[in-house]
Amino acid sequence: MRTQVAIIGAGPAGLLLGHILHQAGIGFTILERTSREHLLGRIRAGVLEQGSVDVLAELGLDADLRERGLTHHGIHLQHDGERHHVDFVELVGRTVSIYGQQALVAHLLAEHDRLGSDIRFEVTDAAPAGLDGSNPTVSYTDGGVATELACEFVVGADGYHGVGRRSIPGITAFERDYPFGWLGILADVPPSTDDLIYALHRDGFAMHSMRSLEVSRLYLQVAHDESIDDWSDARIWDALQTRLGSDGWTLHEGAITEKSITPMRSFVVSTLTHGRLFLAGDAGHIVPPTGAKGLNSAIADVTMLGRALVRSIREGDETGLAGYSDAALSRQWKVQQFSQWMTDMLHLHREAPDASARDFRYRSQVGQLEYLFGSRHAQESLAEQYAGLPFTTE
Ligand code: FAD
Ligand code: DHB
C-alpha cells in the first residue's frame, strides 16, 4: 500500500489535517487505534478560539459549527462569590465559540465519509520506520493482517499515549504535574449563565460551561487521586452550588448524564520533528484545561503543518517543514504559560506546607483576581490570549 502522508491518529488533529491535505489534492491514510464509536463517544474540550473557527470556515468545515456553536463575548471570573465579566469584544474585538470537541470530531468524520477518505479504525501495532530517508513506512495490523504503508511523510497525531513521540530518538520532555484534577459533568439543564464562569473558592475551583442551550457542562477541582465513585450526583451539585454561588444568581440543577475525572498535566516535547516524521497536537504537548487550549493547540499545529506539507509536496519548498517544530513550539510555550497562569490563579493549592502558607497563597490569588478586575491592561492580556494567538510558520 502507498499514500503520500500517513497520519497516525483520528482525533481532531489527524482528521483536520486529512481535510487540509485533501483540499490541496494530496493523498493520505489515517490509522486509528480505537473504533469509530469510541471516537464519537469521547467528551472533551468545548471552547474554540476565533482563529480555530476561522480555519474551519476557510476550509468549508464550519456548517455544523455555524448551526450549533454558541458565540461568546467573554468570560466571568469570580472569587468567593464576587463576579466580574471580562468582555473580549470590547477589549480586543474578538470572540470565542462554544462547540464541543465531540461535535467537531463527528462533523470532520462525516465529511471524510462523504469524500470517501481512507481511514482505518481499530488498527494495532502502528510503527513508523525509515524516517531518516525519503521512503518512510508505517507498519500496522488491520483485522489480524500485518500491513505496510509506504509514504512520503508520517504525522504522529496520536495523542499523549501515541507511538509517534516514541519514534523520535533522543527526544526529551519538560513537564509539570498538578496534585489535582477536574471532575466534569454533563447535565440536562439549560445553562444558568450567558458566558462561562471560572471561580476560585476556599473549597477549590469550579467552572460553569455549556454544550448547547439545553445542556450544561460543569467542572470541579478534585484531588488527583479521587474516585468518581465518591462523588454522588447530590454531592456534585452541593459543591457546585457552594463554589459557584453569587448573590442574586441561581445555579439550576438537572439530571447528570455523564461524569468523569481528568488528571491535569503540563507537558512539552523538545522537538516535533525527526526526519520525515512530524508530531501534532497532544502527541507533542498537553496543557491543564483551565485556559481551554488543548484542542485549539491541536488545530494550530495541524494548520501550520498542513500548510508546510502542501508547500513541500506541491512546490518542493521545504522551508515550512524545516521551521515547523520551532514555530509550533514557540507558540506552544506561550500557550503553556497562559494555561499554567490561569490554573495557578484559579485553583486551591493544598500542597502548601501549612495552613498559614495556604492562606497566604489563597489571599495572593484573590489579590491577583482583584487586580485583574480593576486593570484594563491585565484584562486585555487575558482576552488576547484566551481568544487565541495567531497561527504562523513565518
Ligand atoms: P487526541 O484527541 O488524543 O487524538 C489522538 C488519537 O490517536 C486518538 O483517537 C487515539 O485513539 C489515537 N491513537 C493513539 N495511539 C495510537 C496508535 N498507536 N495508533 C493509532 N492511533 C492511535 N482540552 C481543553 O481545551 N478543554 C477540556 O476541557 C479538555 N478536556 C479533556 C478531557 C480529557 C479526558 C482529555 C484526555 C483531554 C481533554 N482536553 C481538553 C484536551 C483536548 O481534548 C486535546 O488537546 C485534544 O483531544 C487533542 O487532539 P489530538 O487530535 O491531538 O489528540
Ligand atoms: C470547557 C473546557 C475548558 O477547559 C475550558 O477552559 C472551558 C470550557 C468545556 O468543556 O466546555
Automatic annotation (TrEMBL):
Which molecular function terms from Gene Ontology are attached?
Answer: 4-hydroxybenzoate 3-monooxygenase activity; FAD binding
| Entries under InterPro entries matching the protein | FAD-bd, FAD/NAD-bd_sf, RIFMO-like
Q: What class of enzyme is it?
A: oxidoreductase
What Enzyme Commission number(s) does the record list for this chain? 1.14.13.2
Q: Name one Pfam family in it.
A: FAD_binding_3
Domain called FAD-binding: residue spans: 2-339
- List the keywords (alphabetical): FAD, Flavoprotein, Monooxygenase, Oxidoreductase
Is Chaperone one of the keywords UniProt gives this record?
Answer: no
Give the matching NCBIfam families: PRK08243.1
Tell me the protein's name.
4-hydroxybenzoate 3-monooxygenase
